[in-house]
Amino acid sequence: MYPTGEAPHSRAGWLTAGGIAVLAALGVLRACLYVTLPGHATVVFNTFSGLQKGRVELPGAIFRIPGIETPITYTVLTRVWEFTNDPASANAISNAITVNTADGQAFAIDVAIALKPNLATLDELHANIGENYLSTVVVPVVRSKIRDISASFNSEDFYRKSQRAAIEQRALDLIRQEMPTVNRDGQTLPLVQVEGLFLGNPDFPQALGRVDLMLG
Hints:
It is built from four helices and twelve strands.
């Protein structure tokens, strides 16, 4: 006997409905949660107000309004990107850079650059440039400055250790100066932090001949 007069199938129906309600609630909760993984940071775009300036979410879970707030996540770890013709390169962002030196020689050279988005200005990076900052800013700036610097050196300087270091440092300084910035709290901050630049061995045309690799 059921004291309330409730039939077994009615109770089963209530249990089923309750289970569905719980699952629906969990689904809504899951849709409201967004997780930023370690090594990443997230900015949030609001459908009505646009990008939420000043809001940069660090690794962890945040609440968002589904359909209204869209999280956009960036990798903020330092990564090394390559300008190379090597098809096996996993970090290639452009072809090797062809340069013309002060002694009139032209050749291609691989370049590796270490950089990361500036966590402190990630919202401005997304607002002003966007997720394609590598192709729209980094690639053209690096190619331009490497070519500019190379015109001040002779071809053999690219094999001399001391001169190679000077070329790398001068190029690094110019590239840093050309990276977009934002003024925040009276400080000029870069949107992209460039941490290092490295030159590969020049790919001289065969007609130029082989430069002595032991040049000091």
